[in-house]
Amino acid sequence: MESSILIIDDEIKIRSLLARIIELEGFTVYQAENAKEGLKILANQDISVVISDVKLPDANGVELVKQIKAIKSYVEIINLTAYGTISDGVLAIKNGAFDYLTKGDDNDKIIPLVYKAIAKAQLQQRVFELEHKIAVKYSFKTILGNSKPIKEAISLAEKVAVTDTTVLLLGETGTGKEVFAQAIHYESPRKNKPFVALNCSGFSPELLESELFGYKAGAFTGANKDKKGLLEEAHGGTLFLDEIGEMNLDLQAKLLRVLENQSFIKVGSTITSQVNVRILAATNRNLKEQAESGHFRLDLYYRLSVFVINLPALRERKADISLLAEFYLASFAKKVNRPNLKMDEKLLTVLNKHNWKGNVRELKNVIERLVILSDGEIIDTTNLPIEFLIDTPNSNAFDLQTVEKQHIQKVLIHTKSNKTETARLLNIGLTTLYRKIEEYQIREV
C-alpha cells in the first residue's frame, strides 16, 4: 500500500528540508503552510501520516489533531514544536496524536517514527475499509423493494436504528428479519461493536441458557472452565434473538432482568454480571396471543414490544417480485460465470402469481435452482419445481415425462451428479439413466 506524508509548517526552510529527508525514503510528500491548506490536501489525497508544527498561523497543531481525526480517523499525526512542554505533549497524545517531538531532536528520530506511524495507519485504514464494506453490505440500502409495505418497514427501522430502543421484528419465515436486525445494528452508534445472533429454536432450554449467559467451571458435567455467554460476547453491541417465541418461561424471566437492568447471573454462579447490550428480537408467531394465553410472559412481551416492526410477506409486496428475481439472477449468474442470463416473460408471470409461502428466501432458492439447471442464456419455466408448474395455466405439469424429468434432476442434485448413485436411488439401470439424461436434455449439475 503506497503511503503519503503531509507536512504542515509555516517555516518553508524547515518544511522543505523535512520533505526532502522523507522523500529520500521513497514516500510521496505533500506540503502546506497552514492548517486550512493542510486540511484541504488531507480531504483530497490519500494521506497516511501528518507531521504538523504546533504553532501555525491559523491553528494550534495540538488542537488540529482532533480535526484531522474527524476527517480521516485512521491517519496518524506527529506534532513538532520548537518549545516543547510536557502539558502540550500530554494533550497531543490525548487528542489522538501518534507522537510529539521537539524540533532539533527530530533529525534522527523522525524517519523511524514515520515508519512506525505508517505501519499503524495502514493497519487502521484496512480495518476502516473493512468496517465500511461491512456497514455497506448490511445497510438499509441493500434491502430491495419499492412497494409501500417494505418502504414503510424500512422507514420505521431507520428511525429506531439510531436509538438504543429494544425492537421486536414480526414476520413469516423468510421475510428477512435477520437482514433487518443487521441493518439496524450497522446503522446505529453500536456499529463498531459486535452483532451477535442466536436462534432460540436451535437449542434445548439448558443449552440455550448456557449459550446466552455463559457458565462457571464446574457448573455441570463437562464444564471444565469458565465460558462467556453471547450476552458478554455482544457487550457494547447488539444481541439478536431470533425465534424468541421458542424460549421457555424460566429463561424468559432471566432475559427480562437483562432488559430491565442489564444484569444477569452465569450458570453455576452466584455473582451478578453487568453488560451493555441492545436486544433485538424476532418471531414468526403471534407473540401477543401467546402472552395472553400464558405461553409467553406478558411482562416480557411488553418489554420486547417497545417498538414493533411488521415485515410484509412477499405475497403482500408482489410489485417487488420481478426486482428481487432479477437481482438474484444477476448474482447467481455471476457466480457461475454466465453474466448474460435473462428470464423470459412467461417465467416472470409464473413467479409473480406464486403464493411464496417461504417468502424472499424461497424466491432466492428457486432462482439459484433455475440458474444451475438452465441451458442457454434464457431462463424459462422448464426447470421450475413441480408445484409451480401445477399452478401455471395450460402447463404440462401432469405429463409423465415432465414429472420424470423433474424427479431425475432432483436426485442428480442430491447425489451431486453421481450417476451410479442416482441410478441406484431411482432403481433403474445406469444405461437407462444415461439415455433419459440425453432424451430429456438434462443439464449436468
Describe the structure.
The protein has 445 residues and is α/β, with parallel strands linked by helices. It folds into 3 domains: 4-135, Rossmann fold; 140-312, Rossmann fold, CATH 3.40.50; 315-439, Helicase, Ruva Protein, domain 3 (Orthogonal Bundle). It contains 19 helices and 18 strands. It has helices at 12-23, 35-44, 61-71, 86-95, 106-137, 148-161, 177-186, 205-213, 230-233, 249-261, 287-292, 298-304, 321-335, 345-353, 359-373, 386-390, 400-414, 419-426, 430-439; strands at residues 4-8, 28-32, 49-53, 55-56, 59-60, 76-81, 99-102, 167-170, 195-199, 214-215, 227-228, 238-242, 263-265, 272-274, 278-283, 307-310, 342-343, 378-379. The strands form 6 sheets. Strands 2-1-3-6-7 form a 5-stranded parallel β-sheet, with helices on both faces. It has a 5-stranded parallel β-sheet with strand order 9-12-15-8-16. The longest helix is centred in the N-terminal third of the chain and has 32 residues, at 106-137.
